[in-house]
Amino acid sequence: MQEFLNETVQRNMTSRVRTVAPEMTLGDLLRLFTADKVNAYPVESNGRLVGIVSKADVLKAFAPRQAGIVLHYDDVMGTTVDEVMSRHVMTVDTKTS
Asked: How far apart are CA 49 and CA 44, in angstroms?
């Protein structure tokens, strides 16, 4: 266990990461989740990290709105990543252990 705690982030991270744009629809995002077999993507805008979006974020888009109103499936699929992503992302330096 001690060996693992002394390893750096760089040694354990995925270095080639696919990112998605805030303008991407949830329909397109779900297709990427299926193709890449991942659970989350960093969200980038103009080369800057602006959030992260996960499968759980997509599921929340299907939750009933106020007064129990549920959006139509096509409306949810047209929702953008920007509307459901988490904006508070913690980052660390690659040399962090």
From this structure: 5
Q: Are the C-beta atoms of residues 57 and 24 closer than 8 Å to each other?
A: no
84 against 62, higher pLDDT: 84
* Exposure b/e, 14-23, CB count within 10 A at least 16 = b: eeeeeebbbe
* pLDDT higher than 80, residue 75: yes
Provide the whole-model pTM.
0.81
Q: What is the pLDDT of residue 70?
A: 73
**Cα separation, 42 vs 73, whole angstroms:** 24
Mapping DSSP to helix (H, G, I), strand (E, B) and coil, where does residue 28 land? helix
> How far, rounded to the nearest angstrom, does the alpha carbon of residue 97 sit from its chain's CA centroid?
24
Q: Provide the CB-side half-sphere exposure for 96 (13 A, CA).
A: 7
